[in-house]
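Recall that a protein's primary structure is simply its ordered list of amino acids. Everything else, from secondary elements to tertiary packing, is in principle encoded there. The following example makes that idea concrete.
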Amino acid sequence: MVHFVGAGPGDPELITVKGLKLIKEADIVIYAGSLVNAELLKVCKSEAEIYDSKDMNLQEVLKVFEEAKEAGKTVVRLHTGDPSLYGAIREQMDWLKEKGIEYDICPGVSSFSGAAAAIRKEYTLPGVTQTVIITRAEGRTPVPDKEKLSVLAAHQATMVLFLSATLSEKIREELIAGGYPVDTPAAVVFRATWPDEEVVWTTLDKIPEAFQREEARRADGNMKQALIIVGRAIDDKTVYEYSKLYDREFVTCYRAR
């Protein structure tokens, strides 16, 4: 059996109870060492085999799965955040299905949720936006033409950009070209929920400068674990409507007028 487990965004206490239980019981753990907090591995059985997938290609990971099946061992494939977002798990699951190997998924807390907690904001405000666009800027990995940032920007929804820390100038240009005002509120959240988490508040036109200042300040120079959030919903000054859910004049099946 292979369990795909979401490790959460960084804080080891943000893994689910079920996910932690699966790690404790696993015979083999393959974890994404470049992103997953290694503190989680302390609960592994003393005899558990541990592999760091940052040093492995897909075929090497699949070989571990195959050997585990032959040995009757249980595997936890530990991905950062929630594995459904940029987890590259489909190719692994398709192979497991082809080989007749059982698998399941234990969801996790995504870093975009961790980032919302870090900035203490709600992504969806009534009267402002009811949509969150989770995407990435086009770099070495292309995106479909209909998902270019300049196209998505037309909605002016709250946008959360993963895997785009090195493309801040491209983000600024494409989002402004697509319709976001230059002064749209923005936040860059570095290493959400980790001990060295940091939030930099800025505006769309000044996102590259925010990265430059942070890079000069951070001794480790690690800028990759950053999320970029853009949209009016994250601004304290934004005027919004109160939710109908708790409006005393709004009738629901649970509450009369």
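The first helix runs from residue 17 to 25. Residues 62 and 95 are 8 Å apart (CA to CA).
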